Description:
Layout: E1 2-4, E2 8-11, E3 14-18, E4 23-29, E5 35-42, E6 47-55, E7 60-62, E8 71-75, E9 81-86, E10 95-103, E11 106-109, E12 113-118, H1 142-152, H2 154-191
Parallel strand pairs: 1-11, 3-12
Antiparallel strand pairs: 2-4, 4-9, 5-6, 5-10, 6-7, 8-9, 10-11, 10-12
Amino acid sequence: GFYTNLLLSQTPKHILAQTNNKTEILCELKKEHAGVYWYRWSQERQNFEFLVFLNLLGKATYGVNISQDKFSVHGVSSHTSYSLHISHLHASDNGTYYCSISQSSQLLLGRGTWLSVVDVLPLPLKSTLEPRSKKPVRFITKSKAAGKKGACSPLIWVPLAASILVLLLSLIPTAYRLHRLRRRLWLRIHRQ
């Protein structure tokens, strides 16, 4: 069986990398083990694939059809830190990568690192530079900035505006009924 466990931590959680580049995933163990396994879950192919195992002596054992030119594992002398290097990145490398150790006939998995390989990385947002003035600059703390961002976020105002619109539209038939009821009541009173 596979289990996620606190005996090992894996970083980073997400990697966005460009085609033909390389990347690295780090696995930190709380204590020394006989070695580290690396697996990949492919959402597209719906399979869990064994990539490579590195033992304490530094000997690597690769999975079926796994290229040694593409995947390599490096460990430090303490045997508690291992890194998986993936080179010549391609869209076929997309997936979630897990480091793993074997304990009591169970495989304990790290939290996973999601790798997405794209042909072109998105450009960072450009900031427009304003000419410097002699006026004092007011700094915005993170909490205030987050508050301002949250207030303007489409994720907040679009559902809010839609809810208000639905509420207003649902009030129209009620207001019409009340108007008719009031008119009937007025007519009854004036007929008497």
